[in-house]
């Protein structure tokens, strides 16, 4: 089955895919899972470079790995089962040492369903040393800067956090880089919320990816709930015996709801 038609735009800095939301991508409310939104965002960035002749293996062989560091997603309406939509990703002007990507999910009628921005870094595969955009010879050059209300940025984590649960990282959680795939972090942010908060209709979420976590490690999930501002902060921590408190953040997430 051909799941979607895809194409590069003429300027080679945008990649578009026409796709149908399938049953297996949806939750019990028949709307697409947020992890699927994140999958599209990550995969379409990689496909944009693949279509330009630099797939993931090519970049790795030449000393480069692309890794997302921060994401921000705004939800007008989540697409639902059997709905047709177009997903677009665009390379935008870098911000410091980070590459900026912009995303849109658009219905067949032209309705803007979901939009987002993410910051990515280029690292050297073995050392994980950050490579400046100016030294990334395959960068798709762009001067576009799209205005976005909640840009990806630092998340303020409250001092008082409630323990929500532990999650062991399993084989099915891993991506080809050998660690927890970034799209699944939003699952941990949602799955461990109390039931009453799982039923909230989200308008925005931001994710910061702090430290890689690998198979058989334990993700300790904590949360803080600000009902007045309709905001939830969820933090996933991993063990690190070298630190004073023996743990460090693997991800930080901010959720906003109606």
Give an account of the 3D structure.
It is globular, with a radius of gyration of 18 Å. The protein has helices spanning 34-51, 56-61, 185-191, 195-198; strands spanning 4-8, 14-20, 65-75, 84-95, 98-107, 112-123, 130-131, 162-168, 202-209, 218-226, 231-239, 247-257. The protein has 258 residues and is mostly beta strands. The model has no long low-confidence stretch (mean pLDDT 94). The chain is built from 4 helices and 12 strands. Strands 1, 2, 3, 4, 5, 6, 7, 8, 9, 10, 11 and 12 form a 12-stranded antiparallel β-sheet that branches.
Order of helices and strands: EEHHEEEEEEHHEEEE
| Share of β-strand residues | 35-45%
Any low-confidence stretches, pLDDT <50, length ≥5? none
Report the sheet with the most strands, covering strand number, pairing sense and barrel closure. Answer: 12 strands, antiparallel
Number of strands: 12
Count up the helices: 4
Oligomer: single chain
- Mean pLDDT equals 94
Distance between the termini: 37 Å
């Amino acid at each position: 089955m051909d799941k979607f038609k895809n194409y590069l735009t003429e300027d080679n800095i945008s990649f578009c895919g026409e796709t149908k939301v399938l049953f297996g991508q949806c939750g019990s409310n028949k709307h697409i899972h947020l992890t699927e939104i994140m999958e599209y965002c990550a995969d379409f960035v990689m496909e944009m470079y693949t279509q330009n002749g630099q797939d993931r293996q090519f970049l790795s062989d030449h000393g480069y790995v692309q890794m997302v560091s921060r994401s921000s997603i705004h939800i007008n309406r989540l697409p639902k089962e059997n709905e047709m939509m177009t997903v677009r990703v665009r390379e935008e002007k870098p911000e410091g040492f980070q590459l900026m990507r912009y995303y849109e999910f658009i219905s067949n009628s032209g309705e803007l369903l979901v939009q987002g921005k993410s910051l990515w870094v280029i690292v050297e595969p073995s050392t994980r040393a950050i490579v400046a955009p100016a030294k990334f010879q395959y960068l798709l050059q762009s001067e576009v800067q799209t205005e976005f209300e909640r840009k990806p940025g630092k998340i303020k984590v409250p001092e008082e956090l409630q323990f929500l649960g532990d999650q062991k990282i399993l084989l099915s959680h891993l991506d080809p880089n050998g660690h927890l795939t970034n799209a699944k972090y939003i699952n941990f942010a949602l799955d461990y919320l109390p039931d009453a908060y799982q039923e909230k209709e989200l308008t925005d979420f931001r994710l910061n990816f702090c430290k890689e976590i690998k198979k058989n490690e334990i993700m300790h999930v904590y949360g803080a709930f600000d009902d007045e501002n309709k905001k939830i902060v969820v933090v996933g921590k991993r063990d690190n015996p070298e630190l004073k408190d023996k743990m460090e953040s693997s991800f930080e997430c901010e959720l906003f709801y109606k």
